[in-house]
Amino acid sequence: MNDLSSVLVEHKIIGDQIVEVARRLYARNMLAAADGNISVRINEHMVLITPSGVSKAFIKAEDLALITLDHQVLYGKASSERMMHLEVYKHCPLARAVVHAHPTTAIAWSVAQPELTKLPAECLSEVILACGDIPFVPYARPGTPAMGSHLIPFLPQHRALILSRHGALSWGESLDEAWRGMERIEHSAEILWKAQQLGGLTSLPGEEVAALREMRRSLGEKLL
Ligand SMILES: [Zn+2]
User: Fold this and answer.
1) Distance (Å) from CA 190 to ligand 1 centroid
2) How confident is the model at residue 121 (pLDDT cuts 50, 70, 90)?
């Protein structure tokens, strides 16, 4: 099988998986209008990515675009936010998939409390165990190279990130891992928001947080 035909076979299988994740994001209210994008690195040179300017809830596998890691568009109308995806693949050799969405509660935290450097999640053992810290990446003006470059200090050590006043991004060694990261970000942000409404955030004791962080280290780097 030559290189192009193997790419097309991969495109169909992975394309269907990307479409499925897009629908899940839409169903979870993490996408409005043409927001968000999903990509999968299908080999060491090429990335399949969702198209720009369309609702991701209604895309089909054949609407996806193919780009190279050095930023050439091979076919399709690749997402205008592809620089974020390419920076992840460049700085995270293990990355196979990137999910970017606009989860409302996670974004709201960055708007209401811009002084925070990470989601205040040390009161939740699941967050520490599943992904460690969820940092806030500083604001970047849409469509500028800063969208990609602002991610760099957080890579590869973070796989689940909130993009201040914009959205969230997660990456993984599989599309399933990247999806789980996005779901974890918004679920954690919702719990913390509700806790704050109910009387305020409390923390676990310092030694418990330290023990959980040690468990996280022993579990490895994948998002759980
Ligand atoms: Zn976005």
Assistant:
1) 19
2) confident
Distance from first CA to last CA of the chain, Å, rounded? 36
Distance 84 CA to ligand 1 centre (A): 10
d(CA 57, CA 4): 28
pLDDT value, residue 5 = 60
pLDDT computed for residue 79 by the predictor: 84
According to the model, what pLDDT value does residue 83 have?
93
- Is the model's pLDDT at 110 over the cut of 90? yes
Expressed in angstroms and rounded, the spacing between residue 147 Cα and the centre of ligand 1 is 9
Query: 5 or 131: whose pLDDT is higher?
Result: 131
**CA 207 / ligand 1 centre spacing (Å):** 37
CA atoms within 13 A on the CB side of 41: 25
Note the pTM of the prediction, 2 decimals. 0.93
Distance (Å) from CA 203 to ligand 1 centroid: 31
Residue 9 has pLDDT above 80, yes or no: no
Q: How far is the CA of 44 from the centre of ligand 1 (A)?
A: 25
The superfamily (CATH) of domain 3-219 is Class II aldolase/adducin N-terminal domain (3.40.225.10)
Q: How far does the centroid of ligand 1 lie from the alpha carbon of residue 100, in Å?
A: 7
Nearest alpha carbon to residue 132 among 90, 95, 196, 185:
185
Distance 118 CA to ligand 1 centre (A): 19
Beta strands 167-172; 73-75: pairing state: unpaired
